[in-house]
Amino acid sequence: MKKIKFIYNPNSGDKKIIYKLDDIISKFQDNGYIVVPYRISKNNTMENGLEDINDNYEYILVAGGDGSIDRLVNYMKKNNINLPIAILPTGTANDFANVLNIPLDINLAIDKIINSKPKSIDLGIINKDYFVNIASTGMFTDVSQRVDENLKNSIGRVSYIIKGIEDALHLRKFSVSVKSKELEYEGDMYLILILNGRTAGNISLAHYAMLDDGLLDVIIFKAMPIPKTIPLILDIIKGAPIDKYNEIIYFKTDELYINCEEDIVTDIDGERGPNFPLHIKCDKQGIQILGIE
């Protein structure tokens, strides 16, 4: 029988994974897999659960949100683990799973995983860390970091929206330097997004993004008068193409540098990122994923 490592975060999202464990394991076993489960907790880290990984495993199955996937990918890349991964999206936002068109229904997701072959997709690298979906800096960047964990688990994505509205009431601009072979920008901005996928907070932004083209999509929201800001944000939420606005810079690149002398944080897939200066590049087809088309 084929063996898979099953890493799960019991506290992700609405904690529904707790009530699905037997169904998950039995479904894989019925399809000829030996499932080796590992529960993430404060004292039992993902790294501990991956210590026994070797070539006897077919792939790693992870149940959690973007943060759990990000930590898994970082550990694998930094420890030369080249197994494919499969995702059961049980987090709060599940941005990356949505980009990959992985069903939120766990049974449907398992069906896709079992009946698929690994597909290689790109990753982003920011300094020495990897990201699967998005890296960012500026306003709203650390919303997911600042939301209380209990509030996040009880009302999910709404908690992000509430915190984001609070931030929008106090717009603050930052002076940055952005350099790549395609573009150089020095000036004020509200927010910079570097996307591997198309969405941030499940809002489609990088309309031309592809997961296997070896390029990252960069979006710079320049500082602008407040009367312009609100209509622009509403248009974007409705799905308007962002490259039509003079206040937004949108380009693709495989490498860029960002520096900022001000006191702002960075974010990688909902977790705190490195300090400035930032060197960001694309790891073309750097990971294999199951359950995607």
Number of separate strands: 17
Q: Tell me the helix content.
A: 25-40%
> Number of helical segments?
9
Q: Can you give the mean pLDDT?
A: 87
In what range is the share of β-strand residues?
25-35%
Question: Structural class per helix/strand content?
Answer: alpha+beta
Listing every helix as H and every strand as E from the N terminus to the C terminus, the arrangement reads EHEHEHEHHEEEHHHEEEEEHEEEEE
- Global outline: elongated
Which quaternary structure do these chains form? single chain
Q: Over all CA atoms, what is the radius of gyration? A: 19 Å
**Biggest beta sheet attributes:** 11 strands, antiparallel
Low-pLDDT runs of 5+ residues are 142-166
Q: What does this protein look like?
A:
Helices cover 26% and strands 34% of the residues. It has 293 residues and is of the alpha+beta class. The strands form 3 sheets. Strands 5, 6, 7, 8, 9, 12, 13, 14, 15, 16 and 17 form an 11-stranded antiparallel beta sheet that branches. The chain has a 4-stranded parallel beta sheet with strand order 2-1-3-4, with helices on both faces. Strands 10-11 form a two-stranded antiparallel ribbon. Helix 1 links the parallel strand 1 and strand 2. Helix 1 packs parallel to helix 5. It comes from Paeniclostridium hominis. This is YegS/Rv2252/BmrU family lipid kinase. InterPro entries: ATP-NAD_kinase_N, Diacylglycerol/lipid_kinase, Diacylglycerol_kinase_cat_dom, Lipid_Phosphate_FormReg, NAD/diacylglycerol_kinase_sf, YegS/DAGK_C. Its cofactor is Mg(2+).
